[in-house]
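@channel sequence for tomorrow's demo:
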Amino acid sequence: MIPLESLTSCFQGLIPAWLCTCSRDGVPNVAILSHVDYVDSRHVALSFQFFNKSKRNVSENPKAMVRLYDPDTMQVYALRLRFVRTETEGPLFESMRLRIEAIASYSGLKGIFRLLGADVYEVLSVEPVEHEAGLLALAAARGPRSAQPSGVPFTMKALQELSERIHRAPTLDCLLDAILETLESIFGFRHSMILLASDRPERLETIASRGYREGGVGSEVGFGEGIIGMVAEARKPIRISGMLRQLVYADAVAKRAQLSGLSPDAQRIPLPGLPNPESQLGIPLLVRDELIGVLCIETDTSYRFHEEDRAYLEVLGGYLAIAIQNALLRERAEEAEPLPPRPGAPQPSAEVRPRIELTHYRSDECILVDGEYLVRSLPAKILWKILNERQASGQSEFTNRLLRLDKSLGLPAFKDNLESRLILLRRRLEQRCPEIRIVQSGRGRFRLELSGEVALAERP
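structure tokens (generated this afternoon):
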């Protein structure tokens, strides 16, 4: 029998499979499956959602056949199966449920496409189908696909270099950049982002990204929204391949919403992402069951992430979470320690200074610059506070400790994540309002620099 392990590409859900069952009376039924899950060398799992006829047939006659398609060669394989059991909990069920929920959440259908059970089948035989009309011609027309990456080079040398880069990072700001740079230079992941827990409950904010035209710093994801939100909600890794096909419906729903007069929130920063993603992997960053954030990696390669990649990156995510948390704690503990100015920090220009207008909306806790959304929540409060101090007294040097003592900011007494909020604010200003700069001048210290005339206005 052909080993199931050799059909890796067939289990990625790139081409729908066919499930063939038969009733006790010999009446056949064929249903289309979006995904067949590999369980082990002798078993596969099928999702039990809507296929009532197939489910009824299997309960009467436990034999079935699945036709799988190799997306590279268009070779068809027939798997003869025998139904074993239905799982409604456990690791296999959770893995399948999270993938379905993540895709459904893109189109606002989370909770509708519910997984009722994971049907486990024993694989009795695997046979190649010699010929199927049209497939060979299609494969020939497509031509050979480029070779797929052989996997993530998780060698001891690579992990040692990652560890050294993390230890060399003097600040949380540098640490975040070092992590994403290393994911690209050593492990080959060119598109990645890190989202940390927001000051608002059950929200994540993008604090660093790499490989995207728009950095998306400050973009938010709610728990349960898309792959990232589902990873945060379940605190488990999620891997999806063949996303483009699965997201076609989500795009249709979004367009229909726009035709109905609905539009995206103008006060929301778009999440960075590839225009045509094919594979996406989300890893929770956990420290002692506390969610620090989420690492998301995506690619336009159809089945870039294999099971071993997910396992390695899950372990790596735990290490990165500890590094990020330690950087936050270290910066808070050493706020009085001076640091040299950030190299290359732009200096105020003596030329004609442009005029910019910042408007603070108290009810929404957000700031607009020249009528365009800039930032909200705690970063908005901080920016408004220091701009008003600068305007009233000319003060330009500030410390994290003074911000923590300021009751008007409403910082929580425990784990306020002030350092990460300041990084987000600084990077957001660099992208959308470079006339205002926040420059780190020491451990727990920063300087406000203006290269333009700033007008402040406040609205209810």
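heads up for whoever presents: Confidence is low (pLDDT under 50) at residues 144-150, 260-266, 337-350.
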